Amino acid sequence: MSHSKSNTTFIIFKAYSEENEPIDPYISILKNQGYEAHLIPTLEFEYHNFDILNHKLQNPHDYSGMVITSPRCARGVIKCLADSKLDENWLKKPIFVVGETTSRLVNKELGFEPIGADNELSKPLLAPCGNLNLNILSDNINTVKFENIEVYRTIPHNNLKTNLEILLSQIKNQIGVIFFSPSGFRAILDLMPKQLFSQLYIILYKLNQAQKFNFKKSWIKRLISIFIVGQKIFAIGPTTGAAIKEAGYILTGICEKPKPESMLEMIQSFIE
């Protein structure tokens, strides 16, 4: 392994970027700062329902606009269109996006400049989404009608276990893990006791799985976590952090903004 400025090797658990960079920007910024870092692709996405989505995309007059909430939703629209272009009538309607990466994809590959609208929307907004967030918008915005169409499913990466086993066999340093989503965290939750932590956590895990042990308080998990030396757990975003805490793990730090620079600042504040 290459020389690192820290005795901690970082494993980033996230899906591959939809922007297809040669090197993931989160890995790049850590390596540029002298850290040893590796990416384990944790999730992958199955795209579907293109026939239904295509029909809706060809009828922009039925909608007041479109909401694209993630890069995967944008990729679903792009894949659905294939070599064809989005109906130009969508240009007359607001295209709402969530996140800078989503905005760049919509602008670069669909040729649209994402905008917002202050006027009242009389028709529903077409909202391509994943199977895990079908109602995230409509549950929180009661004044706008949404017509959801699931365009992808989130599943654990096919080679997750194999990739993790290979990497862990090579790492000699302490390990710092960085999770980017609750679904990514859950995808390896069963692997973590066996692969990343000590025999003490395996004991806790087995006890907690037994129905006769119903821990109403998290103090036992916290106590054993104290003895798991050399492990650092980071989360990108408060939702991911909450999922990790609810599972009984002690977080080293939470990065509020999903940006490489923010992640680096978080890590340096705890490591150095």
From TrEMBL:
GO terms for biological process: protoporphyrinogen IX biosynthetic process; uroporphyrinogen III biosynthetic process. Residues 26-265 form the Tetrapyrrole biosynthesis uroporphyrinogen III synthase domain. GO terms for molecular function: uroporphyrinogen-III synthase activity. InterPro entries: 4pyrrol_syn_uPrphyn_synt_sf (IPR036108), 4pyrrol_synth_uPrphyn_synth (IPR003754), UROS/Hem4 (IPR039793). GO terms for cellular component: cytosol. This is Tetrapyrrole biosynthesis uroporphyrinogen III synthase domain-containing protein. It comes from Aphis glycines (Soybean aphid).
